[in-house]
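@channel sequence for tomorrow's demo:
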Amino acid sequence: MSRARLNIFIEPEHAKRLDRLAVHKGVSKSAVVAAALASFLSPDDGDQREAAIAKRLDRLSRQFDRLERDQNVLIETVALYVRYFLTVSIPVPEGQQDAARAQGRARYVQFIEQLGRHLQRGRSLVREVHEEIEPEAEPLPVGQGEPEEAADGPAV
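structure tokens (generated this afternoon):
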């Protein structure tokens, strides 16, 4: 195959990088430039890049949709709990407030410990709610719920 000779001028830094790359790859500088030029001029290159970007955007959109759904579940859970708590809670008499605060601190410590165990097992309230609401839906990706093996102990 015959090749056309070109005399080109490039920046000194580009020349240094070209030399290093050619030595590193064990090929001539002409081979590196030819490969770069072929890649740049390839009509499929733009299509491949666009397809890769579209695939990433689709994945990000699905992740965003899951985050939005999970956030809505969490917001509604907290709102429902607050409504329930405010409905059933009675005011604590002045003389019993110290005991109520101590009991509240103890319950909070117990809650944090149980939450820590729940999270260490990889369990997810959002996943459990999602599975109860839509049992036929495709399972959530790894990292979005609990592992396959069942965890022992009470769930939060």
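heads up for whoever presents: Residues 142-156 have pLDDT under 50 and may be disordered.
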